[in-house]
Write a structure and sequence with these properties.
The complex is a heterodimer of chains A (97) and B (279).
Chain A: E1 2-5, E2 14-15, E3 19-21, E4 24-27, H1 35-43, E5 48-52, H2 61-71, H3 81-95
Antiparallel strand pairs in A: 1-5, 2-5, 3-4
Helix pairs in contact in A: 2-3
Chain B: H1 6-14, H2 24-34, H3 40-48, H4 51-61, H5 75-82, H6 84-103, H7 107-124, H8 130-139, H9 142-150, H10 152-165, H11 169-173, H12 181-191, H13 196-203, H14 215-231, H15 246-252, H16 256-271
The chains are: A alpha+beta (97), B mainly alpha (279).
């Protein structure tokens, strides 16, 4: 799930939470957005909606792990740095299972 | 730049309130935060008198960061529910977010992730004032903003050098400034009369064992900064992770599962949080 401003909505995105205005549900959870619906949402004067998007849209686990290696270059021999790196690596692997 | 004396640099930072680039709102808020005996009512009145600030505060409170989604619509309720320290932290957060993001794109996300991580870790360690640690997380890199505002060309060179050599900006700052951005942020916090422990956490976040009044809290900000950089959330000016201070790490003595669960909890909140431009 990700909260995005109405300006960054694109057709094809799916709502992860309903759009509610004045206690009324206007668009239900799971609705796939079209240009017409996006225009409607913009007219509602709400600032943002929650869309269904994977964490780190489009970035693969391999890329994340390669970036992690780069960030720790020449540093993982220092005390506790290899440990911190391993915990973050395991965390990335867990969420990209 | 090497001849820049500490005194001259400090005078420049202390005169920051006179810089046209510092928004008037931040000056007013820094006065509010710095007042030692301010009451909840005074803070509520200050916020309620400003519609834009009210909107920002209510948006933030009703976001995942505070965990009462969609329930609070009055500032006075919010201040009572959250308490003085939380509201102070919140005020700092909403007031510096845009300003920070303007100086360095990604710095706000880095700071927010650091603040959340520090607050979760503080709660796990049963530190008495987790909200103070949260505020320190939000503000720990405010010194970078000051340096960018006052010495943009030099700071861009620092960032480029750090990128080219695989170092951090704090390492490269040494070649340009007599003190690092932490100390500079601490000067500003003192100038703004922030609580002394908060100033110490900002000042010593790269050298946590120097903190006299809040060593554990400073160690928390230090470690949270490192964890968030390791995970690559936001952009703090460089791409390398600073080395953790081993004594600080041992002082906190977190288990492996503490750190992994904290990462997960923090990221869940970050995912539901808006981009700073829409705050």
């Amino acid at each position: 799930m990700r909260r995005v401003s109405v300006d960054s909505l694109r057709p094809g995105m799916k709502l992860a939470k309903p759009v509610i205005k004045d206690m009324t549900t206007l668009l239900g959870e799971g609705t796939e957005l079209t240009d017409r619906l996006i225009a409607k949402i913009k007219n509602l004067t709400i600032a943002d909606v929650v869309i269904d998007a994977p964490r780190e849209d489009g970035i693969t686990k391999e890329t994340l792990l390669r970036q992690l290696d780069l960030r720790f270059q020449d540093r993982d021999t220092e005390p506790y740095m290899a440990l911190i790196k391993r915990l973050v690596r395991e965390h990335i692997e867990d969420i990209h299972e | 730049m090497n001849e820049l004396s500490i005194d001259r640099l400090r005078r420049k930072v202390e005169n920051i309130n006179n810089l046209p680039t510092i928004p008037e709102k931040i000056k007013q808020i820094s006065e509010i935060i710095g007042k030692p005996n301010i009451s909840l009512n005074e803070i509520s009145a200050f916020i309620s008198n400003d519609p834009a600030l009210t909107t920002k505060i209510l948006k933030m409170i009703n976001s995942a960061v505070y965990g009462f989604p969609g329930r609070i619509s009055l500032v006075s309720h919010a201040t009572v529910l959250l308490g003085l320290n939380v509201v102070k932290g919140l005020l700092i957060g909403v007031s510096v977010s845009e300003f920070m993001e303007e100086a360095m794109s990604g710095l706000w996300n880095h700071s927010l992730a650091c603040a959340l991580t520090a607050r979760i870790l503080a709660q796990r360690k049963k530190i008495p004032e987790p909200e103070e640690v949260y505020a320190a997380g939000l503000l720990h890199d405010i010194g970078k903003v000051i340096l960018i505002q006052s010495y943009r060309k030099e700071y861009e060179m620092i960032m480029n050098r750090a990128g080219d050599r695989g170092t951090t900006v704090v390492e490269e700052e040494k070649g340009y400034f007599p003190v690092n951005h932490g100390i500079i942020g601490g000067w500003l916090a003192e100038k703004w009369h922030f609580p002394i422990r908060l100033s110490e956490m900002i000042k010593n976040h790269h050298d946590p064992m120097r903190s006299r009044t809040a060593p554990k809290e400073t160690a928390l900000v230090h470690l949270s900064d490192i964890i968030v950089r390791a995970r690559g959330i936001g952009f703090p000016g460089d791409y390398s992770v600073p080395v953790v201070n081993p004594r600080a790490y041992e002082l906190l003595n977190f288990s492996e599962s503490d750190i992994k669960e904290t990462l997960e909890e923090m990221e869940d909140v970050m995912e539901l949080t808006e981009e700073p431009s829409s705050l």
